[in-house]
From TrEMBL:
<dbReference type="InterPro" id="IPR000850">
    <property type="entry name" value="Adenylat/UMP-CMP_kin"/>
</dbReference>
<dbReference type="InterPro" id="IPR006259">
    <property type="entry name" value="Adenyl_kin_sub"/>
</dbReference>
<feature type="binding site">
    <location>
        <begin position="10"/>
        <end position="15"/>
    </location>
    <ligand>
        <name>ATP</name>
    </ligand>
</feature>
<protein>
    <recommendedName>
        <fullName>Adenylate kinase</fullName>
        <ecNumber>2.7.4.3</ecNumber>
    </recommendedName>
</protein>
<feature type="binding site">
    <location>
        <position position="127"/>
    </location>
    <ligand>
        <name>ATP</name>
    </ligand>
</feature>
<feature type="binding site">
    <location>
        <begin position="85"/>
        <end position="88"/>
    </location>
    <ligand>
        <name>AMP</name>
    </ligand>
</feature>
<keyword id="KW-0547">Nucleotide-binding</keyword>
<comment type="pathway">
    <text>Purine metabolism; AMP biosynthesis via salvage pathway; AMP from ADP: step 1/1.</text>
</comment>
<dbReference type="InterPro" id="IPR033690">
    <property type="entry name" value="Adenylat_kinase_CS"/>
</dbReference>
<keyword id="KW-0963">Cytoplasm</keyword>
<keyword id="KW-0067">ATP-binding</keyword>
<keyword id="KW-0418">Kinase</keyword>
<feature type="binding site">
    <location>
        <position position="31"/>
    </location>
    <ligand>
        <name>AMP</name>
    </ligand>
</feature>
<feature type="binding site">
    <location>
        <position position="139"/>
    </location>
    <ligand>
        <name>AMP</name>
    </ligand>
</feature>
<dbReference type="InterPro" id="IPR027417">
    <property type="entry name" value="P-loop_NTPase"/>
</dbReference>
<feature type="binding site">
    <location>
        <position position="150"/>
    </location>
    <ligand>
        <name>AMP</name>
    </ligand>
</feature>
<keyword id="KW-0545">Nucleotide biosynthesis</keyword>
């Protein structure tokens, strides 16, 4: 099963990806997590990405496409994966198609978590408070001002990915304003429908 989760920051992609990991036994490939790890390890990629990430912008296509190319070639991704936070531009979506096509692989579904963007800032403030209360580090880019930049980047560069996949018939829209459990149930029913079609 090869899936993409798309939606603005704070839409719940990471939460739902964790559920899909447990259900299908395939890895979550989050470019955000991979970039944060690169920043923490101060690798050359991390050093380049840090400033852009802190400002809520997008890291270059070249860097993220390279990261994903390497990651999907790893053994644990052979039977499938969940892409979370990638592709984030049309160029990334096209690069992914090429990568998969070169290996005769196909995507099974693209799940868009559609949300009311006016509610997202509140969600992100809560995410930061929950992390703090749990003694976990708070993401620097979960600051409300930076979050607005991330949302702008989504609307400017990433939203076009949705019609791109709609044209290919791969897109399913999920109401991301439901409770976490109901979003999970909606995703499960879309994926079950796919199984039945096969
Ligand atoms: P996320 O955890 O998915 O919200 O990503 C955190 C930050 O990492 C984003 O705000 C971007 O700066 C960067 N990032 C993650 N994925 C990508 C991507 N596919 N393309 C460009 N930048 C990305």
């Amino acid at each position: 099963m090869r899936l993409i989760l798309v939606g603005p920051p704070g839409a719940g992609k990471g939460t739902q990806a964790a559920h899909l990991v447990a259900k299908y036994g395939i890895p979550q490939l989050s470019t955000g997590d991979m970039l944060r790890a690169a920043v923490a390890a101060q690798t050359p990629v991390g050093l380049k990405a840090k400033e852009v990430m802190d400002a809520g912008g997008l890291v270059s296509d070249e860097i993220v496409v390279g990261i994903i190319r390497d990651r999907i070639a790893e053994d644990d991704a052979k039977k499938g994966f969940i892409l979370d936070g990638f592709p984030r531009t049309l160029a990334q979506a096209e690069a992914l198609d090429q990568m998969l096509g070169a290996n005769s692989l196909k995507l099974n579904a693209v799940l868009e978590l559609r949300v009311d963007q006016t509610k997202l800032v509140d969600r992100i403030i809560k995410r930061a408070e929950d992390a703090k209360a749990a003694g976990q580090p708070v993401r620097k880019d979960d600051d409300p001002e930076v979050f607005k930049q991330r949302l702008e980047a989504y609307n400017r560069d990433t939203a076009v990915v949705v019609p791109y996949y709609e044209k290919t018939g791969l897109l399913s829209v999920i109401d991301g304003m439901q409770s976490i459990e109901d979003v999970t149930a909606s995703i499960d029913s879309v994926l079950q429908g796919l199984d039945e079609k096969v």
